[in-house]
Amino acid sequence: MDAKRYSPRTLILEILAILLGLLFLVPFYFVIVNSMKTFGELLRNTASLPEAFYFGNYLKVWEIMKFPAVFMNSLIITVCSNIGLVLISSMAAYRMVRHPSKWNNLLFACFVAAMVIPFQSIMIPLVKVASSVGLLGSVWGLVICYFGFGVSLNLFLYHGFIKSIPREIEESAVVDGTTPFGVFWRIVFPLLKPMTVTVVLLNSLWIWNDFLLPLLVLNNPYLRTIPLATYAFFGQYTKQWDLALAALVLGVLPIILFFLALQKHIIEGITAGSVKG
């Protein structure tokens, strides 16, 4: 029966999927290969393998970027933003689902509508507001800005997932004397693990690689994130491609490893939140 199901059409689709996957891997090939070339060799031929693998670019980038410092800045911003977004979004979504009202429905509609607003249309007012309340030049100011931009999508995902949780579980906990906060933290929140993993992954990929918002908010050179530090290799008249590519590899490697470790939960969480809701 399995042999009959495997038709020529399936074979063609698999071949096309493999070719498409290889096409998406081409940029990674160019970045990794050229990061291990000298600048002269890189200019001569960007597509070939290195004549000799040169790792000096990574050592130079480590010192020039002060990589441990910018890595910690990116890590702190990503972790703190994720913690706040998970807490705010999960609690807000739980309240809206379990206590439906006209006000909650309107509020949820506003959050969903905010997802379609492009960042470029509000970045100038954002900078003015952030400056007036003292959020510019601060890591915590940037984290607060991420709260505002990320809560809409996170709340939307949690909202759909919480609908799939039976009320009977919570009612049993209430009968046993559990407080409303206890019901959420002891019963509901552990059940949100698939969606929480999905939310953390999506937020991490966005925040770790974000360039424009940190550029607007972090005007202190000591608070640069990895994308901002990498941008320093692109000057007005010169572009240090050998060092920039090595910096890109160092910058994306942690988030790629994090993604590969947890990516199996993405489809599970998104499917549960969108279909069951």
Question: What brief labels describe this structure?
Answer:
277 residues, mainly alpha, 15 helices, globular, disordered C terminus
Explained architecture:
The longest helix is centred in the first third of the chain and has 32 residues, at 67-98. It contains 15 helices and no strands. Mean pLDDT is 85; it is low at 273-277. The protein has 277 residues and is mainly alpha-helical. The chain has a single domain, classed as MetI-like fold. Helix 5 runs parallel beside helix 8 and helix 9 packs antiparallel against helix 10. The radius of gyration is 23 Å and the shape is globular. The protein starts with a helix and ends with a helix.
* Alpha carbon gyration radius: 23 Å
Residue-averaged pLDDT = 85
**Uncertain spans:** 273-277
Number of domains: 1
Structural class: mainly alpha
CATH architecture: Orthogonal Bundle
Task: Give the CATH topology.
Answer: MetI-like fold
Largest sheet data? none
Number of strands: 0
Q: Can you identify the CATH superfamily?
A: MetI-like
Task: Report, as a whole number of angstroms, the end-to-end distance.
Answer: 34 Å
> Topology as H/E string?
HHHHHHHHHHHHHHH
Give the helix/strand layout.
Layout lengths: L1 H4 L2 H27 L4 H6 L11 H9 L2 H32 L3 H13 L8 H10 L6 H24 L4 H9 L4 H12 L1 H17 L2 H6 L8 H6 L9 H22 L1 H12 L2
Short précis:
This protein has 277 residues and is an all-alpha fold. It has 15 helices and no strands.
